[in-house]
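Q: Predict the assembly, please.
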Amino acid sequence: NAGVTQTPKFRILKIGQSMTLQCTQDMNHNYMYWYRQDPGMGLKLIYYSVGAGITDKGEVPNGYNVSRSTTEDFPLRLELAAPSQTSVYFCASSYSRQPHSGNTIYFGEGSWLTVV
Amino acid sequence: GIQVEQSPPDLILQEGANSTLRCNFSDSVNNLQWFHQNPWGQLINLFYIPSGTKQNGRLSATTVATERYSLLYISSSQTTDSGVYFCAVLAAGGSEKLVFGKGTKLTVNP
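A: Predicted assembly structure:
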């Protein structure tokens, strides 16, 4: 099983450039999330989706956009990259928020993004 | 929104020692998970434990939901246990946002 796959793993962007971080999961999960992790900090939620066609803002959505056209894919787009967006980005998925044993959240391996 | 506080922020141990990490949360939760982030940045699920006690090898966790805290126990620590341990919660009452604490950075020295 591939689980949650993110690409690219590393990227350097110039200020003002745009890019898309790709995320796909093969577990047929309803819920998908994008988090960012700044050095020495926990993860902050950027956007999340509870199913295809539905997205919602998290704690730090400014400067980002998402779409969820399929269950499997949840790309994160950065328009007009800024140095403040230098971070490690994690995509994650889970079956649903309903609590039951084994309903855990699974993370991709992270994407290291530097904006210079 | 719900607040998640982890303590201690940093912990240094000698190999073989035991430790307890704490996670306090400010509201009722439907989901609580412990993660280990290894030195390469990978986030690994340790426990899904909104209440009760679970054990997996040298690791165990207890959540007392009524008192809004969870504890992660590491026994006979090994150098491979080094990394950052995160607690994350999903607030009860309709939230779909898993909120993370700032983590406990554990260093196990040989």
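Residues 47 and 57 of chain A are 5 Å apart (CA to CA). The mean pLDDT of chain A is 90.
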